[in-house]
Amino acid sequence: MDENKNVNEELENKEKTVEEGTENQEDKQPTLEEVMAELARERAEKEKMKVASDKYSSEIATLKKQLRAKQTAEEAAEDAKREQEEAHKEYVAGLEKKLALIEAKARYADMGMEPELAAKTAEAELDGDKETVSANIKKMMAASLKSAEAEWIKSRPDVQSGAEEDPNAEDPFIKGFTGK
């Protein structure tokens, strides 16, 4: 209840103050010159604020443009750097693949493969095609076996048969048994 009394008293005090203020204003009427002077001051103040606002707005716009230009330059530099790094990575990957291909060709050539077959086998190895690699190794083994057989056939002596001998000549083997 005490709170309600306090609130009521405050409201009454405010009403009295408002009534007194209106009475004071009624007693004192501004003149036309005072009103015009006040209006001129307000317009001048408004113009100053507008000029200051325009000035700050243009400064903000200039700073924003500079920031955007700087960000754009930075972003362009980042993009160029990223593209250069990607190109470098692709170049390095290509060199690594080429080196691995050369090493694989050399390894298969050392095994005895022909250069064309070694190149195809190395490419298949880098592509992960194990079936082609094993098939090419089998081809190499078969070719190696054929060449070894051909060399053996060339190096063995001619077969000697008795068809070229004189039919009247005596056989030394039989002569050894008969003693004649």
Q: Would you summarize the structure shown here?
A:
With 180 residues, this protein is an all-alpha fold. It has 5 helices and no strands.
Instruction: Count all strands and give the number.
Output: 0
* Poorly predicted runs: none
Cα-to-Cα separation, first versus last residue: 168 Å
Count every helix, treating DSSP H or I runs of 4 or more residues as helices.
5
Helix proportion range: over 70%
The percent range for strand residues is: under 5%
Structural class: mainly alpha
How is the topology of this model organized?
Layout: H1 2-27, H2 32-111, H3 115-127, H4 130-155, H5 172-178
List the defining traits of the structure above.
5 helices, mainly alpha, 84% helix, 180 residues
What does this structure look like?
This protein is an all-alpha fold and 180 residues long. 84% of the residues lie in helices and 0% in strands. Helix 2 crosses helix 3 and helix 3 runs antiparallel to helix 4. The longest helix is centred in the middle third of the chain and has 80 residues. It starts with a helix and ends with a helix.
